Amino acid sequence: MNKLPLLALAALVSSGVLAQQPKANTYHFPPTSRPCEMPNSAASYLLSRKDVQTELKLTPDVAGKIDSICGKLKADVAAELAAIKEGKKVTEPVTRLYGAANEAFKGLLDQTQGTRLRQLFLRQRGVEAYLYADVQQELGMQPAQTSQLMTLVTNWNDKVRSLNAELKEGKLTKEQRDTQVKDGSRDFMKSIAAVPTEAQKKQLQVIEGPVFHYTKA
């Protein structure tokens, strides 16, 4: 299990492989010792998992409240995506639905739980953890490194959009587009991994905390 199945992003981007923009639609958990920068949908996805709830040692009461929030979010997002697919005007942008859920999560986690949630998120992102501003700051990345990472993100996203456009224009089949995306994604990840120093790579492992093994859904 390496990536978050970001439902909203997948609905808005047909390929579902655009790189995460470090400062777009992020959520900061107040209880954590450091700001926890993550996409809006990441917190709700992780917190909805029973194995994550167990890892965080949530009480039955807190777990029940989180399940209720996530259940409502899932239904609301599904309704909005269905409306978008049908060409209808949505009543509430999907990103705001996630934002409302994140607000509801506030106060449910203590500092230790919030810190561990951040660790689980960063481990799940793999080398993409280097794209987040809070991680870059904690690792002491130099301006040249952060600039290089942003250039990689921009170039990759432009490439994906170009492939999607060629698919829409009939210049590529879906299989051809998917193959190019898969190959390009592999190269993109390798390029990201080449930016941090060996010391920064070791420091990230410390930041990410103990390895966590997800159970199969």
How far apart are the termini? Answer: 10 Å
Largest sheet: 2 strands, antiparallel
Helix content: 55-70%
* Domain unit count: 1
- Parts with pLDDT < 50 across at least 5 consecutive residues: 1-25, 29-34
Mean pLDDT, nearest integer? 82
- Category from helices, strands and their pairing: mainly alpha
Rg of Cα set: 18 Å
How many helix segments? 10
The amount of beta strand, in percent, is under 5%
- Shape from CA axes? flat
Structure, briefly:
This protein has 217 residues and is an all-alpha fold.
Can you put this structure into words, describing what you see?
The protein has 217 residues and is mainly α. The chain is 64% helix and 2% strand. The protein contains ten helices and two strands. The protein has helices at 7-12, 40-48, 50-55, 60-85, 94-105, 111-125, 133-139, 143-168, 174-193, 198-208; strands at residues 26-27, 38-39. A two-stranded antiparallel ribbon has the order 1-2. Helix 2 (40-48) crosses helix 5 (94-105) and helix 4 (60-85) packs antiparallel against helix 5 (94-105). 29% of the residues are buried. The model is unreliable at 1-25 and 29-34 (pLDDT under 50).
Secondary-structure blueprint of this entry?
Layout: H1 7-12, E1 26-27, E2 38-39, H2 40-48, H3 50-55, H4 60-85, H5 94-105, H6 111-125, H7 133-139, H8 143-168, H9 174-193, H10 198-208
Antiparallel strand pairs: 1-2
Helix pairs in contact: 2-4, 2-5, 4-5, 8-9
